[in-house]
Request: fold
Amino acid sequence: MSPLIRTIGRALRNGWDLVTSPHPRSRLDGMHQRGSAGRDIGRCCLGAAVFLTSFQLTGEGPVSLPSPSASLYNPARIVAPPSGFVPTVPKGFRVSVFASGFEEPRWLAVAPNGDVFVSDSAAGRIVVLPDPSRQTPAKTRDVFAEHLSLPFGIAFRGDFIYVAEQNAVDRFRFDRRTSRRLGEKEQLIGYAVVFVPFRGGNPTAGAELFASGWVPDPAQAEAYGRPVGVAVAKDGSLLVSDDGAKVIWRVFYQP
Reply:
């Protein structure tokens, strides 16, 4: 185990925070909590492509981080691996190729029957692979939906599968037993801010439209902006970042 990993492990056990320098292209989804008992540290999830540029163990003292300057986004160049290459895993584990031949496989989601749904983003399609426990490697595949705009997120609820495109959220009715699609695409929302109530970590109702109007054309050929991020300010107002209009909107209640 490297000295860096040991240092981070000791810090987390002692109740310290792990802080990273902010960077617009890094994805760090974290939750930091300090409690009187144990100072639990929330989990930090780093995506496969996260580039962690610097860190500082802060303990209980103030944090002093340098301001970001030039972009440090420098992903590795993908090259052809040597013949027979597989990722390295701990002793006792084995690696094999389950499926190949995609353009840009991104999101994976396991259906209620065990089949695997794949967002092949660059190809604009959702592909269904058989349950690995029934067929490995995958010898068959079905195109569940195509002609989508950079599909990414996938979720299942009831008799529907929900798919996030870059400009909308869609749903398709499907057969939970066979993973077959049973209807055409239903576009739920796009270029809007919606409210979804949760209880116990699970949604209790569908999406309710909250802020919209960015797309004057029903065909979505043009848009006035693109809402991409939200935050609740201390005064209770909602802040919405718009990378299309290059502004941050503030939504507040005024009876």
About this structure: The radius of gyration is 22 Å. Residues 15-57 have pLDDT under 50 and may be disordered. Helices lie at 3-13.
